[in-house]
Design brief:
Length: 212
Amino acid sequence: MTDFVDQINRLHRQVGTRRVEAGEARTVLMRRTYDAGIADVWDAVTSPERIARWFLPVSGEFEVGGRYQLEGQAGGEILECAEPERLRVSWLFGPDPGFSEVEVRLTPQGDERTLFELEHVAVVPEEFWGRFGPGATGVGWDLMSLGLALHLAGGRMTQEESVAWQLSDEGKECARISGTAWGAAYTASGADAGTVESTTRATIAFYTGAAG
C-alpha cells in the first residue's frame, strides 16, 4: 500500500520568477526521485495510454508542434521533446489563458532510479497570486506526483477513486502538508510572513474544503 503522506514529504519545492516575452512570470518547481528507470518514467509521462491510467485521458497530435488536450483540464502545444530527458508544453485553459508552460526534466540516478523535475512557468494575474500564492498550482502538481508514483509502483486508482481519496482524511492531510510546504518555499523565495500565512491558509482551504 502506497504511503501517500510519506510520498508528499519527499518532494522538494522551489518558488521563483522569470522574465518571459509576455512579462514577469512566476515559477514553481517540484522535484523528487522515483524508484523506476528513466525509460519507464519517460514512457509514463509521454504515452497517451499510460497518462490516462495515472492522470487524465489525453487526445491530440503527439509530436513537436502538435496540440494536445487533457480531458477537463489544460491543453496546448508540444513545444520541445528530447527523449528521454525533457518535455516542454504550453499549459493553457480558459478563455484568456495568457502565458503558461510546463517542462518535465528527467535525470537517471542509476539503473532503476530517476530524478523527476516539473517546472511550471506562468504569467499569473496579481489578484490570483495575491490570494493563493504558489500553492494553488503547486499543490495540484504535488497531488499529480502521487498518481505517477502509484502508477510506477504498479498500482492504479480510477477517476472516481481518486476523487474519493482527495476527500478522505489522508487526502486532506496530504493537501495540508503540501500547502504548508509550498508556503515554506514561498518564504524562502523572499515573500513576507503575512502574505505567506494568508495565501497558505487560502490554498489549504481550497483543497480541503476547510473554512478559509
